[in-house]
Automatic annotation (TrEMBL):
Record carries keyword Signal: yes
Annotated protein name in UniProt: FecR family protein
Organism, as annotated: uncultured Thiotrichaceae bacterium
InterPro entries on file: FecR
Residue ranges annotated for the FecR protein domain, each copy included: 66-167
Amino acid sequence: MEIRMLNKQFLLAVSMAILSSGSFLDVAFAAEEPLGKTILARGSVTADRNSAKEALKRLSPVFQQDVLRSGSGARAQFRMVDDALINLQENSVLNLKEYKLDSADGNGSVLMDLISGGLRTVTGVVGKKDKKDYQLRTPTATIGIRGTMYEVGIVSDGMYVGAWSGDIWIRSHSGKCDVELGDNFKNRFAFVDVQGICRMLQGVPKVFREGYSSDSETDVSNTSFSLDPLLENPQRELPYRGITLGQRGLAIGSGQANSITSSRPVIETSDNGTVSSPNGTVTAFTQSVGGYQLSWGRWNDYALSPELDGLPSPVEDEDGLIWSVYQPSDTDVVTGRAGEVRYDNMVDSLSQSTMGTVSNLAVQMDVNFNDGSVTNGTLSAQVPDHTWVAIFDGQVNNGQLDLDYNGGALANAQTGALTDASGQIIGDFVGDTAEAITGGFSMTDNINNNQINGTFLVEQE
């Protein structure tokens, strides 16, 4: 009886919040400033606000007391004021009860109610100083964090919880579950039934790999996947894109990554497997490059798994590895652009060469958004007594940038002699309006095997 009363109390509180969201008191209480903005809205994504349902699209603000809803097959992402990223799955309802950032160092408070469905979130600065500042409530339990990426999926007879990175704590309303999951604990996954009883899981819950539905049946069977402390489930979609350069001689790898704020993200590439650096030295780590959702760095040591469902093994590579992680521009934004734009304003870069220090890297290209063509692409970089040069073109397909390396050379600054160079180049649009391009390149001269590779950020003029 006590358990049922606790669940009823939670549902009653949530129902009252939803029903009263348009009242005068709530309008007066709602913050004037947005709590965050929508960075992705696919399918039916809405907010219950002021007794009305408002459709959300990219860059739509979200406010205190908003009840966010996603329909069948829908997906939404929100960037909050403390830089947290909330990925709301289909058939989900999330009430933003309170979300305050009082200072840049993390003072504030977060209180959200996940009523149904599921979410994955990379938490922001709120809660890192004091874990009591952050709470996610569900019908069965309350979840707190210690700076982390975690996931919740509500099903008909309970909920699944997973700590992909960092630590979380779970306390059921019945008081029968009080556990912690994550990096510093034995388990990463748990199931909490409707009575508030916890069951630890050794494998990745099926619901995290196949989507969310409140009508799902319980599946607490273990998988054969074994999770490294820094490695997420390779079967699931990760929130960012990643690039690796120079990895074990495999010029460029591109794929997805788990974190944009960590200096040791896990990067999965379709060609090169899973890459991480759990213990290696990190150099040149830079966050928010140029003010964009972009970070990069260099690992002197790293671990590699040729198979995406394996665990990385240490790699001996004296050349090290340059990596980049970023949030690409929404493809709808890219396809909505028109006209011809030149990208030639070099914002920043990170590169390395077997010939010594790299300087004066320059990249430029013309993008015609009307016909999707990329022309006049050139790249140049200086190393001691030599200059690398390359030409490329490409096209924009379905909002994504596809670059083609057409040729290059290594020029001797003293004699003028040229050596042909083979290479690769890739790129992607970044920014709210696709106003910048980030990418990676790799070149090797065909006679002496000198090499250069790096990553760059270039804005439109």
